[in-house]
Amino acid sequence: MKKGQTTIFILMAVIIIAVIIVYYSVERNPINKINSEFQPVYSLVEDCIRGTGEDAIYYTSLRGGYIEPLNYSYIEYPIENTSIIASHNIAYYIYGNKNIMPSKQEIEKELSDYVDGFTYFCTNKINFKEYNVTLGDIETNTVIEENKVIFNSKFSITTFKGENTVNFENFIVEIPVRMGFVYDIVEQIVEKEKQREDICISCLYELSEENNFSINMLEGDDDGIIFIITDKKSEFYEDNYKFYFAKYIEI
């Protein structure tokens, strides 16, 4: 093969690879395909999904991975600088020497259900100004990864402006929080603690030092011990990311 032919083949290969990269980049980021005239509508809806996604992570993490747990301990605590007493239910992960921790897929479904429920309320409050917007159904698939949570929402939206009409459907929102990492840590703690009648303080301390997180414990009701895992590497809600769960200790 001549040198000129080799150069042509190499150039063609580079072009093909570049086209593939651009194609998949656009497919993964549907915002790139949106008509700029309708970009404000897409961005407002995306902000709603992002906000409800962050709320979903916060409230499910506060309750042990559930919107509303069935088997739980209960704690009350004062809100700083107020006379208000707050309370919430925290799911048992260890009960009677049994591991009843939810799977990651179960928590993902809880997150999806929260986003589906509250995003619709959020978007109904938006003033779309010169746009006429019709909202359809929303269905979210959530993926918890080590360093982020991904919300893939199919939300059918028809937008009118003058004689122009655009349909939106796919929204992808990523929240940078180490929920998957913390879940794996909690899983290790539960496996260590489920056979113990007390708490292995040294085990928890060693695990926290190795993985750069902190553990606090509080007394709940019904002989429950509340574990609070704080990830020092995740900033979330203007604080470090926290995950709560409970262990039942019969006294």
SSE order and pairing:
Blueprint: H1 3-28, H2 39-62, E1 72-78, E2 85-95, E3 98-99, H3 104-124, E4 132-144, E5 149-161, E6 164-175, H4 179-193, H5 201-211, E7 213-219, E8 224-236, E9 239-248
Helix pairs in contact: 2-3
Q: Could you walk me through the main structural features you see in this protein, from its secondary elements to its overall organization?
A:
The structure is a single chain. The strands form 2 sheets. Strands 1, 2, 3, 7, 8 and 9 form a 6-stranded mixed beta sheet that branches. A 3-stranded antiparallel beta sheet has the order 4-5-6. The protein has 2 domains: 33 residues; 215 residues, no CATH class. It is 39% helix and 35% strand. Strand 5 and strand 6 form a beta hairpin. It is an alpha+beta fold.
Count of alpha/pi helices: 5
Cα-atom radius of gyration: 24 Å
**Tally of distinct domains:** 2
Q: Tell me, briefly, the overall form.
A: elongated
| Element pattern in H and E | HHEEEHEEEHHEEE
Q: Residue ranges: pLDDT <50 for 5 or more in a row?
A: 18-32
Into which percentage range does the β-strand content fall? 35-45%
How much helical structure, as a percent, in the residues?
25-40%
Distance between the termini: 83 Å
